[in-house]
Structures are given as structure tokens and as C-alpha cells.
Amino acid sequence: MVHYLVKIIFLLFIIMPKNIRSCSVPGFGYEVHILNNLPANSPQLEFHCASGDDDLGYHYPAIGTDFNWEFCGAFYTLFFCHFWLGDKDLSFDVFNNINICVADGKDFVPSDTKKCLWKVQDDGFYLGYFDEHANENIYKKYRDW
């Protein structure tokens, strides 16, 4: 029995696509969004996001814009970002848990969240999710700069 389970897990790893822009395995697709919600007079936001396999590069989003990507997630998937704003800088995981976006995010998003929403503000970073009942994004402060 264990032998068959090992074969099934091995086959799942083989068929999971490496392309982070799509996921052809139903139920394993995730999204990460980073919204620049800084005031108009702010310094330019810069960030660099990557995983062990994928480097998403450096980004300089305009205020009010949303940088996002999709990928096939598994229990070992991790994406981190390094953010810079003037003389401030901070790096942290933006995805490392297939149920709640980040392992310490249980107080921020409900279980089985497939879309991780990050909002960058001058006072820090907010983690959120889309609430289907309220039909809006719900955010809670995750950490300061």
C-alpha cells in the first residue's frame, strides 16, 4: 500500500508544471497579489520576489497598481519578497503555506485561501483575502516596515 502511495506522490511531482504563470492541476492553483497602496508623495516602491525555482525579478509598481502571479502550489512551495521604500527595507515570505498563505497567517486569512493579497502602505504590510459574502477584500495589518 505504501509503495503505491509513493508512486502517486512521485507522479504528482512530475506532472506539476514548472511554469509559475499557470497551473493545470485542479485545486493546486494559487495567486499572490502585491498592491502598492502608498500615498501619492511616497518614494518609489521597489521589490524583488523569488522562490527556489523562479526569480520574478525587480518591480517598481506605480501607486494603485497590483503586481501578481499564479503558480501551482504544493506543501513545499515558498515565495519571498524583499521590499524597499526610501530608507526602509524588509524581506519576508509572501507564500509558504497552501492553506493560509503564510504559516503565521492564521489570524489574517481563512483556511483554504487560494488568493493571497498583500497591500503595501506607508505604515507597513497588510495581508488579506477576498470575502465572497461581503464581496470585498478584507485586510489586517501583518507587520510594520
TrEMBL record:
Keywords: Secreted, Self-incompatibility, Signal
Xref: Pfam families: Self-incomp_S1 (PF05938)
Cell compartments where the protein resides: Secreted
Extent of the signal sequence: 1-22
Superkingdom of the source species: Eukaryota
Keyword Signal: yes
Residue runs in coiled coils: none
InterPro entries xref list: Self-incomp_S1
Single GO biological process annotation from the record: rejection of self pollen
One GO cellular component term noted in the UniProt record for this chain: extracellular region
Protein's UniProt keywords contain Signal: yes
Protein family (similarity comment): Belongs to the plant self-incompatibility (S1) protein family.
Protein name in UniProt: S-protein homolog
Upper taxonomic lineage: Eukaryota, Viridiplantae, Streptophyta, Embryophyta, Tracheophyta
